[in-house]
Amino acid sequence: MSERFRIAPSVLSADFARLGEEVRAVEAAGADLIHFDVMDNHYVPNLTVGPLVCAAVRPHVSIPIDVHLMIEPVDRIVADFAEAGANLISFHPEASRHVDRTLSLIRERGCKAGLVFNPATPLAWLDHTLDKVDLVLLMSVNPGFGGQRFIDAVLPKITEARRRIDAAAGGREVWLEVDGGVKVDNIARIATAGADTFVAGSAIFGSKDYAATIREMRAQLARAVRA
Ligand code: DX5
Ligand code: ZN
Q1: 165 near 176, Cβ under 8 Å?
Q2: Minimal CB count within 10 Å: which of 26, 33, 41, 76?
């Protein structure tokens, strides 16, 4: 099992009526993180779950909870997610009026802070923020729904983000996560482009055997290392 790569099943494709059981199942299947998609029917045209459900999930798993906020505004809800047991909190910079402040707010609450980039959002948001960023999350679909097709134009953007992280982070660990349309058959290409953390919703929760799917993903990732 590669320590270099992390697999983060997205609860968006889980059975919400059995969420505790579902997150326990993916942890047992070898997941590294639980990816928790928060949508507000305002920043994105869909509505999911908030801090109450995050707190309900927390005691079911020991792996970190990776909260992806697709909400506007951001700041007011940060403390609630930190108290609900989130370990990482990421937000879309254009949804926050004061990006630097929001990054500080997340870190002051003891969580790792992430910036999320839609397919058409420029990486320029990293120019003056990277020293406060623990996670760069690149969307490879437009946010709002699971089960969409991976947008290939994001591959060179992953490589560019990797270059920026390696150049600026100064040895500090900054994760590069990709979210949307990640499957067994494209995960190696995404890793080769520079990603180290992979969100997969429908590919894992839509499969019959979560452990087998995660194992196949890791086998593909092992090949990417050799590339
Ligand atoms: C989309 C969400 C994703 C989604 C990914 O807005 O941020 O995390 O669950 O789902 P798949 O893996 O099915 O594309
Ligand atoms: Zn997500």
Answers
A1: yes
A2: 76
